[in-house]
Each structure stands twice: as C-alpha cells, then as structure tokens.
Amino acid sequence: MEKPDLDEKKIIDNLFDPEISEILAEMENGPKHCTFLSEKFGIMPEDLQEKLSYLIQHQFVNQNGSLDDVQYSVDSEKLSEMMESGHNYKNVEDGLAKMDSFLN
C-alpha cells in the first residue's frame, strides 16, 4: 500500500537522478550489500542511505539487515507500476527529458 505523502514527481526525480539511477541499475539483478555499493560508487554508506532514503521510505527500494550489515534491493514490480501508470506518463516524459539533458 502506498503512503499518503508519496510525491510522484519526487519519485521520478529520484529515479532519473544520474547517481541514483546507476545505483538502482546495479541492484537490478538482486540485492547488493551496502559496502559493495559504497565502494563501487565511491560514496560513504551514510550518503548512500541518504540518496536512497525517499525510495526506501516509499518501498521502491528495500533495506534489510542491521546498521553494520545492510543490503539494498529494488522492488522492480513497484517501479514498473509507477513508470507504466497512465497518470504518470507526463512525469515519465519529463524524467526522460531530464535524463537526456544530463547525458548530452
């Protein structure tokens, strides 16, 4: 069940943020340990937690384990539903345009 304070634009902004999208892509094939992601992307575990916090809060990213042994995984089904929902189509277009501007 979605939380009532879900800001769809903020979710799309997070999904298409260049750093966050790379992290999410890394988790596409399964859960990844915090240490692995921190080392791969050159960020501190606390910064990784902060970057993913909104997506974790709304269960697009799952966080399991204790403070010293955290694993993150993506809820691919929930992300797909967000991207495919008709009322979000404009947000997806805006997100893709934003991502395209980062790449160019």
Q: In terms of topology, how is this protein built?
A:
Elements: H1 8-15, H2 18-26, E1 32-33, H3 34-41, H4 45-57, E2 61-64, E3 71-74, H5 76-84, H6 89-103
Antiparallel strand pairs: 1-3, 2-3
Strand content: 5-15%
- Strand neighbour order, sheet with most strands: 1-3-2
Which percent range fits the helix content?
55-70%
Main beta sheet strand tally, sense and closure:
3 strands, antiparallel
Mean pLDDT across all residues, rounded?
82
Give the helix tally: 6
Which regions are unreliable across 5 or more consecutive residues at pLDDT < 50?
none
Order of helices and strands: HHEHHEEHH
Question: Could you characterize the architecture of this molecule?
Answer:
The protein has 104 residues and is mainly alpha-helical. It is 60% helix and 10% strand. It is built from six helices and three strands, in the order H-H-E-H-H-E-E-H-H. The protein has helices at 8-15, 18-26, 34-41, 45-57, 76-84, 89-103; strands at 32-33, 61-64, 71-74. It has a three-stranded antiparallel sheet with strand order 1-3-2. The protein is globular and about 40 Å long.
